[in-house]
Design a protein that fits this description.
The structure holds 2 protein chains of 2 kinds. Helix content of chain A is 57%, strand content 15%. By secondary structure, chain A is an alpha+beta fold. Chain A has one domain: Winged helix-like DNA-binding domain superfamily/Winged helix DNA-binding domain (Arc Repressor Mutant, subunit A, Orthogonal Bundle), CATH 1.10.10.10. Chain A has a 3-stranded antiparallel β-sheet. By secondary structure, chain B is of the alpha+beta class. Chain B folds into 4 domains: 67 residues, no CATH class; 220 residues, no CATH class; 307 residues, no CATH class; 215 residues, no CATH class. In chain B, the strands form 3 sheets. In chain B, strands 1, 2, 3, 4, 5, 6, 7, 8, 9, 10 and 11 form an 11-stranded mixed β-sheet that branches. In chain B, helix 2 packs across helix 3. The chains are: A alpha+beta, B alpha+beta. At the A-B interface, helix 2, helix 3 and strand 3 of A face helix 1, helix 2 and helix 4 of B.
Chain lengths: 108, 890
C-alpha cells in the first residue's frame, strides 16, 4: 500500500479537523485519519507527537489526562476556541491552494 | 503567551519527558493490540509494534524539543553531559576546582583590599568625583615636601578661593571616650560644621551640627554618634539624645546619630563619634588657635569643585590662595624660597601624593595574585587539554557521526565555564579566609571587609570567573579545531598526541617561568626583610613601653605636672617586670621635637639638616638600650640649677666638629640660640633611627636632661625585663592610680611603632613567599600531570625500549630529561622576566639589589629540583612497565 506524502502543513490541519468531533488521544487521532481517508493517509507517530506538542504550545489544542477504552491513563486532546479559528483560516487557505492547483492541472 | 507556556513547561521538564514516554508507550500497546486482533502471535505483535514505532527516545526528544528554545536545549545538553563527565573523574574535578578556588579567591581578597584602599568612594558621599582632598607642598632644604594644614591656613584657603562650593576641615583623632573604668580610646572624627554637607546621609536620629556650632574660638561642644556606638553604648535608645559624653578633655552633648554604615572618610577605622573642630580645638589648646599658624592637629581639607571648574583650575586657584595665605601670615620674604603649591587630589588618601607604603606593596601583590591566577589557568587549561586529547577518538567518532563542530566546541566550553563557576564559589570561602589574613597584616586594627555580601567584589569575581572560564576553554577548543578526522579515527588516542602537545608544553614553560618570577620576588623580599631586621636601630624597640599622659580637663600648673611625672617615674620602677624607666618628650619614629641651635665656629647649623632632641631622665639610655660611646649619660646631678649639659649622637658630633673630639664642646639652644648660654657636651651616644629604617643622612639627634628642659612636658619610657606585652596592663594599672581626676595614661609598645615601619617588608616577604610557593606547587602539579600523561601515552614505546634491552635507569633518564627540559626553558624565560621586572620592584627593596645572583641561583635550583621530583614518580612508573603486558594490550 502506498502512503502519499502529506503536503507540508496539512498534518496540523488534519489533526485539528479530526478533533472537531471531540476529544481523542494520540492513537485515536492516527486511527481516525486512517479510517476516514480510507487507509490512504497514515500519520506517522514520529510526526504526530511533535505536531501535537506544537499545537499545545501554540494554544490550539489542550490536553487532559483521562481513562482510555481499556482503562489506561491516556492524554486526550481537545480543540480550543483559538484552535477552531485557526482551523477555519487554515482550511480556507488550503481550499484556496487546492483550487489553484486544480486550475493549473486543468488548464496549463 | 508562547514564551510563558514555554517557561511553565520548562519548570517541569523531567515530568514532561515522562508524560510523553507514557503516551508513546500507550500508542505502541494500541498498535500491538490491533496486530493481535489481526491474528499476529503475542511476541510477533510486540516486535512488529516496536518496529512500527521506531526510535521512541528520539521521538520523545523531538516532541519535547518543540518546547525548548533551540539554544537552551544545547546548553542544557552540554551542561548535563559535562556534569556526567565530571562526576566520572572526581579527582580531576576536585583538582581543577581547588586550583580555580585558590586563584580566584586570592584575587578576590586582593581586589577587596585594593578597592577599599584606592577605588571605592566614601559611602554616602554626594558626587564623589567633584570632591577633592587638598595637599600643600613647600620647598624645604631644597626639596619639595608635603606640608601639614593648620586651621588658619585652612581658613585662608577657604577665604581666598572661588572655585569651590563646599569646604570642610577634618581630622581623625584617637580620643578617650567616657570616664572611669569604661573609658576607651576610640577614633573620633573632628570635623567642621560643613563636613556633613558633603554627604547624602540623613541622620538616623536627631540632627548633625552645622557651621553655627563650629564657630571659632569656642564652638559648641556637641557630638554626633556613629550608629554602632549608639547601639553599643546606648542600646539604640532615643533618650541618648541630649545626654552628655566625655570625649577627650571636654564634655559633649549628643545631638544626633549618623545612619548605619556612615563612616565619614574613614572606612578602615570608623569613627565612634563626630565633634566640631572648634569645640575640639578649644578644649585642646588656648584661645589663639584660630590664628596660630604654629599649632596643628593633623587637619586635612576637602573641597567640592563648582560645576565647570576643572581640576587643574582648582589646583591653580588653591595655589594662588596658598601664596596669599603665606603673605597674610607675614612672611613675604619666604615666598620665593618656599615656592608653595597646592593640589586638589583624589578624595581617597591612598591615591593622593601621601599614599602609604602599604598601598604600594598592595598594588604589587595584586600583580602577584594575577600571576598566580594565570598559573592556575595555565594548569587547568593543560588538564583540560589532556582530557580533550584523551577523548580525541571519541570526538572524531562524534564528528564522523555528524555532530556539528560548533556543538562540540560549545561542549568543551561549557566544561571550562562550569568548572570556573564551581571553583569560584569555593573561591568565595578562600577569599573570606584570605582577606582576614590580609587585613591582619596590611591594616591591623581596621574594620573587617565583607566579601560574600559586597557587590563590587562579587561583580569582580564574576568577571574573573568568566574570563578564566573563557581563557581555559580556549586552548582545548583550538586543539579540537585542528582535528583531522581520518587520522584520528585510524590511530585513536595513542599516536599523534605526543607530537601535538606543543600547546601544553608552552603552558608548562609559562607556569615554570611565572613561578620563578614569584619565587625571585619572594627571595628578594625575604633578604630585604633580613636586612631590615639587621638594622641596628640604636635602641631595643621590643622591650620598651611608651607611656603617654592624657590630662583631659585636669588642669595642673607646671610644678604640679613635674611632680606628677616624678611620681609616675618612681611608681613605674616598682612594677614587677619593669626594669628601668625614664622621662621622654619624643618617641623615635613617631614624633620629634626640634629647636634652633647654634654652635660657636659653625656658620649655619641648619645647612647640615635637621637637629632633633629628646629631653630625658638619667635612666633613659639604660631603658632604651642606646649605648653611650664616650663620656657619660645624664646623672641625678643634672638638675635645673646645675651645669647645662647635653649628650649628642655620634653623627652629630662628627658633622659639627669634624676631626675633633665632640666632648666638652659648646652648643647653644633656644628660640634665639646665639643669646643663650653654652651647653656642654658630656657624652656621645650611638646614632638612632629617629625617622625610619632608611639611611638618615640629614637628621641628627641629641639629648637634654629632662630636669633642665621643659620638665612638665612629655611622657615616659619603661623597659620590661621579660615580655613587654605582659607588662603593659600591670604598668597601666599602677600608673593610673597616680593620675588625678579624669586624667589617664596609655601604655603601648615601642615595638608596635617599629613594626609599622617594617610592615611593608614583612608583608612583602610573607605574601610573596606564600604566593610563590603556591605557584610552585601548582606548577609542580601541572608538570607532574603532563609527564604522567605522556608516560601513559608512551607505554608501548617504553615497553618496546625495555623489551629491546633498555635498563630502568635509561627510561627514567628519558622521562626526567623531558620534565627538566620544560623546567629549564621556564627558568630561562622567567629569569629574563624577573631581570626586566626587577627595575620596578627595586624601590620596594631594602638595601637589596633586584638582580641578586644568590636569589636567582637558589630559586632556579629549587625550580629544577621540584621539576625532577615531579617527573621522577611517573618516570619510575614508566620504567616498571611490563613489556609483555603492555605490548599485548594493544
Amino acid at each position: 500500500m502506498k502512503h502519499p506524502d502529506l503536503l507540508p502543513g496539512t498534518l496540523d490541519l488534519l489533526v485539528l479537523r479530526t478533533l472537531t468531533g471531540g476529544a481523542l488521544h494520540g492513537y485515536g487521532i492516527a486511527q481516525r485519519v486512517k479510517q476516514v481517508s480510507g487507509d490512504v493517509l497514515q500519520v506517522g507517530e514520529s510526526s504526530l507527537y511533535p505536531a501535537l506538542q506544537r499545537l499545545l504550545l501554540d494554544g490550539y489544542v489542550k490536553a487532559e489526562w483521562g481513562a482510555s477504552e481499556n482503562n489506561r491513563r491516556a492524554r486526550y486532546y481537545t480543540l480550543t476556541a483559538a484552535g477552531h479559528r485557526h482551523l477555519a483560516s487554515e482550511r480556507k487557505e488550503f481550499e484556496h491552494i487546492v483550487a489553484a492547483i486544480r486550475l493549473v492541472l486543468a488548464n496549463a | 503567551m508562547r514564551s510563558l507556556r514555554r517557561l511553565a513547561r520548562w519548570w517541569r521538564f523531567r515530568a514532561h519527558g515522562e508524560e510523553l514516554a507514557e503516551e508513546l508507550a500507550l500508542h505502541r500497546e494500541a498498535i500491538e493490540r490491533d496486530l493481535i486482533a489481526h491474528g499476529y502471535s503475542g511476541p510477533d505483535a510486540r516486535d512488529a509494534a516496536r518496529r512500527a514505532m521506531g526510535n521512541e527516545t528520539l521521538m520523545r526528544e523531538d516532541a519535547r524539543g518543540v518546547w525548548l528554545w533551540p539554544w537552551l536545549e544545547g546548553v542544557w545538553q552540554d551542561a548535563t553531559a559535562t556534569l556526567r563527565g565530571l562526576r566520572r573523574s572526581p579527582a580531576f574535578t576536585a583538582g581543577v576546582m581547588l586550583t580555580f578556588a585558590l586563584g580566584v579567591g586570592a584575587n578576590a581578597a586582593m581586589f577587596s583590599l585594593i578597592d577599599r584602599l584606592m577605588f571605592r568612594p566614601p559611602a554616602y558621599m554626594r558626587d564623589p568625583a567633584s570632591v577633592h582632598r587638598v595637599y600643600l607642598f613647600r620647598v624645604r632644604d631644597g626639596v619639595e615636601q608635603l606640608a601639614g594644614i593648620v586651621y588658619p591656613r585652612h581658613a585662608d584657603l577657604e577665604r581666598f578661593t572661588t572655585s569651590f562650593s563646599d569646604f570642610a576641615a577634618h581630622s581623625l583623632r584617637s580620643l578617650a571616650v567616657g570616664v572611669g573604668q569604661d573609658a576607651r580610646e576610640l577614633p573620633i572624627g573632628v570635623v567642621s560644621g560643613t563636613f556633613f554637607g558633603f554627604f547624602d546621609a540623613p541622620p538616623a536620629l536627631g540632627r548633625y551640627f552645622g557651621p553655627a556650632e563650629d564657630r571659632p574660638p569656642a564652638g559648641v561642644p556637641v557630638a554626633v554618634l556613629s550608629y554602632s556606638t549608639w547601639q553599643a553604648r546606648y542600646a539604640g535608645r532615643r533618650d541618648a539624645l541630649g545626654s552628655s559624653l566625655h570625649i577627650g578633655s571636654a564634655v559633649y552633648t549628643i545631638i544626633g546619630v549618623a545612619p548605619r554604615d556612615f563612616v565619614g572618610l574613614w572606612p578602615l577605622t570608623p569613627p565612634a563619634a563626630f565633634i566640631p573642630v572648634a569645640a575640639y580645638a578649644a578644649s585642646a589648646t588656648d584661645g589663639n588657635w584660630p590664628t596660630n599658624y604654629g599649632w596643628g592637629f593633623g587637619l586635612a581639607t576637602i573641597v567640592r569643585r563648582r560645576a565647570g571648574v576643572t581640576i587643574d583650575a582648582a589646583s591653580a586657584d588653591l595655589t594662588r590662595a596658598l601664596r596669599q595665605s603665606y603673605l597674610a601670615q607675614g612672611y613675604p620674604e619666604r615666598l620665593e624660597a618656599l615656592r608653595p603649591r597646592a593640589v586638589a587630589s583624589s578624595i581617597l588618601e591612598e591615591r593622593g601624593p601621601d599614599r602609604s607604603g602599604v598601598a604600594r606593596v598592595a598594588i604589587w601583590l595584586a600583580g602577584v595574585t594575577i600571576v598566580v591566577l594565570l598559573i592556575a589557568c595555565a594548569n587547568v587549561a593543560s588538564l583540560l587539554l589532556a582530557r580533550a586529547l584523551a577523548r580525541r577518538r571519541e570526538i572524531a567518532v562524534r564528528l564522523a557521526l555528524g555532530v556539528s563542530r560548533w556543538r562540540l566546541l560549545s561542549q568543551l566550553f561549557t566544561e571550562s565555564l562550569l568548572l570556573a563557576t564551581a571553583g569560584s564559589l569555593l573561591g568565595l570561602v578562600v577569599a573570606t579566609w584570605l582577606s582576614g589574613i590580609l587585613r591582619a597584616s596590611f591594616l591591623p586594627g581596621t574594620a573587617p571587609a565583607t566579601i560574600a555580601t559586597d557587590l563590587r567584589t562579587l561583580g569582580f569575581m564574576g568577571i574573573v570567573t568568566l574570563a578564566v572560564g573563557v581563557f581555559t576553554g580556549m586552548l582545548p577548543m583550538l586543539q579540537a579545531r585542528q582535528l583531522t578526522l581520518t587520522d584520528d579515527l585510524k590511530t585513536g588516542a595513542r599516536a599523534g598526541t605526543h607530537s601535538r602537545s606543543r600547546a601544553r608544553g608552552a603552558l608548562l614553560v609559562l607556569q615554570g617561568a611565572l613561578s620563578l618570577v614569584l619565587l625571585v620576588g619572594a627571595g628578594l623580599f625575604v633578604r630585604s626583610l633580613r636586612h631590615v631586621r639587621d638594622v641596628r636601630l640604636g635602641f631595643d624597640a621590643d622591650s620598651v613601653l611608651i607611656v603617654e599622659l592624657e590630662m583631659r580637663d585636669v588642669k595642673l600648673d607646671s610644678a604640679g605636672t613635674v611632680a606628677l611625672r616624678q611620681r609616675l617615674l618612681a611608681a613605674a620602677t616598682t612594677v614587677p617586670g619593669i626594669r628601668y624607666a625614664s622621662l621622654q618628650q619624643a618617641v623615635p619614629m613617631a614624633g620629634m621635637s626640634s629647636w634652633p641651635i647654634s654652635v660657636p665656629g659653625v656658620d649655619s647649623v641648619r645647612q647640615f639638616g635637621e637637629f632633633e632632641f629628646n629631653a630625658v631622665s638619667p635612666d633613659y639610655f639604660a631603658t632604651m638600650g642606646t649605648r653611650i660611646l664616650r663620656g657619660r649619660a645624664f646623672e641625678p646631678v643634672d638638675i635645673p640649677g646645675g651645669e647645662r649639659v647635653m649628650v649628642v649622637g655620634a653623627a652629630m658630633g662628627a658633622t659639627l666638629w669634624p676631626g675633633e673630639d665632640a666632648l666638652d664642646k659648646c652648643v647653644r639652644i633656644g628660640l634665639r640660640p646665639d643669646t643663650m648660654p653654652c651647653r656642654r657636651v658630656v657624652g656621645i651616644a650611638e646614632d638612632i633611627h629617629a625617622r625610619g629604617l632608611g639611611r638618615e643622612t640629614r637628621n641628627f639627634y641629641y639629648y637634654l636632661p629632662a630636669a633642665q628642659w621643659r620638665p612638665h612636658e612629655g611622657g615616659l619610657f619603661a623597659r620590661a625585663s621579660g615580655d613587654a606585652r605582659q607588662a603593659i596592663e600591670p604598668l597601666r594599672r599602677r600608673l593610673q592610680a597616680e593620675m588625678p581626676g579624669t586624667a589617664y595614661v596609655t601604655v603601648a609598645r615601642l615595638g608596635e611603632i617599629v613594626e609599622g615601619q617594617t610592615r611593608p617588608w614583612v608583608m612583602g616577604a610573607t605574601l610573596f613567599t606564600s604566593f610563590g610557593l603556591l605557584a610552585l606547587l601548582l606548577a609542580a602539579g601541572g608538570l607532574y600531570s603532563v609527564i604522567a600523561y605522556h608516560v601513559a601515552q608512551r607505554r608501548q614505546e617504553l615497553a618496546v625500549r625495555v623489551a629491546l634491552g633498555a635498563a630502568a635507569g635509561d627510561v627514567i633518564r628519558l622521562v626526567v630529561s623531558e620534565g627538566l627540559r620544560f623546567a629549564v626553558s621556564g627558568a630561562v624565560v622567567g629569569g629574563a622576566i624577573a631581570v626586566v621586572g626587577g627595575r620596578w620592584i627595586a624601590p620596594l627593596l631594602f638595601n637589596q639589589s633586584a638582580r641578586d645572583p644568590v636569589v636567582f641561583g637558589t630559586v632556579t635550583a629549587v625550580l629544577l629540583i621540584v621539576a625532577v621530583g615531579a617527573s621522577l614518580i611517573p618516570a619510575i612508573r614508566g620504567a616498571r612497565v611490563d613489556p609483555n603486558a603492555a605490548l599485548r594490550a594493544e
